[in-house]
Specification:
The complex is a heterodimer of chains A (about 450) and B (about 200).
Chain A: H1 2-11, H2 14-36, H3 41-57, H4 59-72, E1 76-80, H5 83-96, E2 101-104, H6 108-112, H7 115-121, E3 125-128, H8 131-139, H9 155-165, H10 174-191, E4 194-197, E5 201-203, E6 208-213, H11 217-223, E7 227-233, E8 237-238, H12 244-255, E9 263-268, E10 281-287, H13 291-294, H14 298-301, H15 311-315, H16 319-322, H17 333-344, H18 346-349, H19 361-365, H20 372-390, H21 394-408, H22 411-424, H23 431-434, H24 447-460
Parallel strand pairs in A: 1-10, 2-3, 2-4, 4-7, 5-8, 7-10
Antiparallel strand pairs in A: 5-6, 6-9
Helix pairs in contact in A: 3-12, 9-10, 17-20
Chain B: E1 3-4, H1 19-37, E2 41-46, H2 47-61, E3 66-69, H3 73-79, E4 87-89, H4 96-101, E5 104-108, E6 111-113, E7 118-122, E8 137-143, E9 147-148, H5 151-161, E10 165-169, E11 174-175, E12 183-184, E13 191-198
Parallel strand pairs in B: 2-13, 3-4, 3-5, 5-8, 6-9, 8-13
Antiparallel strand pairs in B: 1-2, 6-7, 7-10, 11-12
Helix pairs in contact in B: 2-3
Chain lengths: ~450, ~200
C-alpha cells in the first residue's frame, strides 16, 4: 500500500512537518478571522450549496446553455470525455496555430489531465506562471496543496532552487525571490503565443468564465497571447450571473482568508472590435474525465459541488501531518481522498478513503457543506465490495469476522477468551492500533466475575 | 477639499445637502477605508484641475518617466498638461515592448465597491485591460458617484454593459506562495493609486 509508505516517509520528515504546521495553522486562523465579520456566513453556505445542487441535477441543460451563450459571444467550446481527449484538443489548438511557447496560469484541471507532459511530448513548452506552480515546475515536483502548491517548501529550499535554475544570488528574502520569478516570467509572457488558464466559475446564462487570482499572472495569461484556452471541469458551471455573488463571498475567505482576491477576470467570448484588447480566440475545453459518473448518486454527486478552496486540507489532521504528496494524487487532502478514487477508479487509489480519521473537520469548514465523511464511508464500502469480488485479503477478514461472530454469540466462550486476553496482555487483531497507542490496563477481573463473587448481594442491600 | 493620503470625507450625518449626499459620503468613507486595508493608495480630489495636479504629484513622486494613458477622454485630458514633464506614450502606437517599458498606466475605473475596496474595469467602456496590469504602477481615476455599496450591486451594473472582459481589482498584485509571507507586486502592479474624483 503506497499511501501507507508515503505517509510514513512524510511523518519522518521534520522540515516538511514544520512547513505544514506553520502554513495550515496560519491558513486556519486567517479563514476564521475572514468569516468572523460575515454575519450570514451559514446562510451563504446553504445558498451556495443549493445553487450547486440545482445545477448538478440538471447539469446537461446548464452546460448546453453555457456552451451556446459562450459560442454566441465568440468562444469555441470543446467537449472532452477524458484526460487524453482534453490534452489532444489543447495540443491540437496549439499546433494549428504554430504555437511554440505556452504560458499557463494555475489550473488544477490541467494538473489532473497532465497537460504539461502531453504538450512537451509534442515539442511545446508550457511554462507555469503562478509563483508556487513555477517553483514546483522548476523543482520537477508536483503541487502538494490546491491553493498554495509549494506549501511543503521552505524559503531556504526555494532560494537554493532559484540560485541553481535562475542564477540569482542565494537569498532568503522572499521579496527578492518573487522579483526574480517576475523578471524571468515577464519575458515568457511577452513571447507567448498561447495562454492556458483554469476556470473557477462558468455562468450558463451569459457564457461568462470567471477566474480568481492574486498575482496577476492569470490576467497576463488571458490578456496577452493571441489565443486563450480555458480548461474547466464540467462541474464549474452555475446558472445565473447573480449567483457569482455568493461564491465570491465564500471562495476567497475559505481559501486564503481574504474578503476578495486581488483580481477577478470575468471573460465573455472574444473581443468585439479589432482595436479591443485581449486574445483573438477563446477556446473553452469542458472536461468530464469521470465527473458525469459521480452524478448518479446523491452521495457521490456532492463531490462535484467542490469549489477548490482548500479549506478542508488546512483543517484535516491527516493532511496537516503528512502533506499533499503522500496522497499520490493531484488532489490531496480530504477532498482529494474522495475525488481521486471517483475520477480514476478504485484501482490505484483504494487506500485514499481510509486516509482519514472521520473526525468531520473537513465537513465543518467546507463552504458548500460537502459531507466528506459520508462520501469516504461510501467509498470504503465500495473498496470492501471490490476486494470481495477480487478475493484479495478476504480469507483473513472472513476468518476474523467469523471468529468474532462465534465468540460474541457464546457468553462462556467470550469470557474464556477475555480471560486469556487479560492474562496474556495482548490484543492480537488490534496490532495497528496498539502499535502507536498504549492500551489501557485491563481490570484483573471482569464485571461478570465480580458480579458472581458477590457484587449482586451488595447491590440488593 | 483636496487632501492626499488617507482621505476622510467627513461625518456623513452632518452633511447639509440631504440624505443622498450623505449616503454617498458614507460609501466614500468605507471605500477609502477598505482601499487602505488592501494596500492601495487613495487621494480624494475635487474637479479635473485638482486631479491633474494630484496625478503629476503621484508621477513625480514615483520617479516615473514613461507613462501611458488609456483612451478614456478624462485620462487624456488629465495627461495633456503633463506632456512636457513625462514621456506620455500614445496608446494607438504602443507596441508590446513599449508597454512592458512603461512605468505607470493611467486608466479610469467604471465602478468602485465600498465593502471590499475594489475597482471595476469594463472593456466595453475603455481600453484599460493592459495598462492596469503590466506597468508597475496603476493610477485609476474613479468618480465618487460610481461607488457601489456591495459586490452584488457591482455585479448587477456590469451585467448590463456586457463587456467581453470585466476586471475586478482589489489592491496591488500579491502572492503568499512562499511560506505564506505576503509579497506585493509579483506579476501585476506593485502600487495601485486611486484618484477619487468628487464633483465640483
Amino acid at each position: 500500500m503506497s499511501f501507507d509508505r508515503e505517509a510514513r516517509a512524510a511523518l519522518a520528515d521534520g522540515q516538511l512537518r514544520g512547513a505544514l504546521r506553520h502554513a495550515t495553522t496560519l491558513f486556519g486562523e486567517r479563514r476564521r478571522a475572514a468569516i468572523a465579520d460575515v454575519p450570514d456566513w451559514e446562510d451563504a453556505r446553504d445558498r451556495a450549496r443549493a445553487i450547486k445542487d440545482e445545477t448538478l441535477l440538471h447539469l446537461d441543460q446548464f452546460l448546453e446553455q453555457f456552451a451556446a451563450n459562450a459560442e454566441r459571444a465568440g468562444a469555441r467550446v470543446h467537449w472532452a470525455r477524458d484526460a487524453a481527449q482534453a490534452c489532444d484538443i489543447i495540443a491540437g489548438i496549439a499546433e494549428q496555430r504554430g504555437a511554440r511557447s505556452v504560458v499557463k496560469s494555475k489550473s488544477m484541471a490541467s494538473e489532473e489531465i497532465r497537460l504539461n507532459a502531453a504538450l512537451a511530448a509534442r515539442g511545446i513548452a508550457a511554462v507555469e506562471t503562478d509563483l508556487g506552480e513555477y517553483i514546483i515546475q522548476l523543482a520537477g515536483e508536483e503541487p502538494s496543496h490546491i491553493v498554495v502548491p509549494a506549501i511543503h517548501k521552505t524559503k531556504g529550499q526555494i532560494a537554493a532552487l532559484f540560485a541553481e535554475k535562475l542564477g540569482m544570488e542565494p537569498s532568503d528574502d522572499v521579496t527578492k525571490l518573487a522579483a526574480a520569478a517576475r523578471r524571468a516570467l515577464r519575458r515568457r509572457f511577452a513571447e507567448a503565443d498561447l495562454g492556458v488558464s483554469g476556470v473557477n466559475f462558468a455562468v450558463a446564462e451569459t457564457g461568462t468564465i470567471l477566474i480568481l487570482e492574486n498575482e496577476g499572472n492569470a490576467r497576463l495569461t488571458t490578456s496577452l497571447p493571441r489565443t486563450h484556452v480555458a480548461l474547466m471541469g464540467i462541474e464549474k458551471v452555475i446558472p445565473r450571473f447573480a449567483d457569482l455573488e455568493v461564491f465570491l463571498r465564500l471562495l476567497p475567505r475559505s481559501g486564503t482568508g481574504q474578503a476578495l482576491t486581488a483580481y477577478q477576470s470575468l471573460l465573455t467570448g472574444t473581443k468585439r472590435q479589432p482595436a479591443d484588447e485581449g486574445p483573438e480566440e477563446l477556446h473553452i475545453v469542458l472536461l468530464d474525465n469521470g465527473r458525469s459518473r459521480m452524478l448518479a448518486s446523491p452521495v457521490t454527486r456532492q463531490t462535484l459541488a467542490c469549489i477548490r478552496c482548500g479549506a478542508c486540507l488546512n483543517a484535516c489532521p491527516v493532511y496537516r501531518q503528512i502533506g499533499g504528496h503522500a496522497y499520490g494524487s493531484v488532489y490531496p487532502g480530504p477532498i482529494g481522498a474522495v475525488l481521486t478514487p471517483q475520477l480514476l477508479g478504485m484501482g490505484e487509489s483504494s487506500a485514499l478513503p481510509y486516509a482519514s480519521s472521520l473526525c468531520g473537520a473537513c465537513r465543518d469548514v467546507c463552504p458548500v457543506k460537502i459531507d466528506i465523511p459520508a462520501v469516504l464511508l461510501h467509498l470504503r464500502a465500495q473498496a470492501v465490495a471490490r476486494r470481495g469480488s477480487t478475493g484479495t485479503r478476504t480469507l483473513l477478514e472472513r476468518l476474523a469476522f467469523a471468529s468474532y461472530a462465534a465468540v460474541m454469540a457464546r457468553p462462556r466462550l467470550f469470557e474464556w477468551v477475555m480471560r486469556c486476553a487479560r492474562r496474556l496482555h495482548l490484543m492480537p487483531p488490534l496490532g495497528a492500533w496498539t502499535k502507536w497507542r498504549d492500551l489501557r490496563p485491563l481490570a484483573p477481573r471482569s464485571f461478570r466475575e465480580e458480579w458472581r463473587r458477590g457484587l449482586c448481594d451488595e447491590g440488593a442491600e | 477639499m483636496g487632501s492626499t493620503g488617507s482621505a476622510d470625507p467627513g461625518p456623513a450625518t452632518e452633511d447639509p445637502q440631504g440624505p443622498r449626499k450623505s449616503f454617498r459620503a458614507a460609501l466614500v468613507s468605507s471605500f477609502t477605508e477598505r482601499l487602505a486595508a488592501v494596500g492601495a493608495q487613495c487621494s480624494v480630489v475635487s474637479g479635473e484641475a485638482e486631479a491633474a495636479g494630484a496625478l503629476a504629484g503621484i508621477l513625480s513622486g514615483a520617479g516615473a518617466r514613461r507613462v501611458a494613458g488609456s483612451d478614456a477622454p478624462l485620462v487624456q485630458r488629465l495627461l495633456q498638461p503633463l506632456r512636457d514633464r513625462f514621456q506620455i506614450a500614445d496608446l494607438e502606437r504602443l507596441s508590446r515592448d513599449d508597454l512592458f517599458a512603461c512605468d505607470v498606466g493611467v486608466t479610469t475605473a467604471q465602478w468602485g465597491i465600498a465593502e471590499t475596496g475594489t475597482l471595476v474595469l469594463e472593456s466595453a467602456r475603455e481600453r484599460s485591460r493592459l495598462l492596469s496590469l503590466v506597468p508597475p504602477i496603476h493610477v485609476a481615476v474613479l468618480s465618487t458617484r460610481c461607488i457601489c455599496g456591495s459586490l452584488g450591486d457591482a455585479l448587477d451594473r456590469v451585467r448590463q454593459a456586457a463587456s467581453h472582459a470585466i476586471t475586478f481589482i482589489t489592491g496591488p498584485s500579491r502572492t503568499s506562495d512562499i511560506e505564506l509571507t505576503l509579497v506585493v507586486g509579483v506579476h501585476g502592479p506593485q502600487t495601485v493609486h486611486v484618484l477619487l474624483l468628487e464633483d465640483v
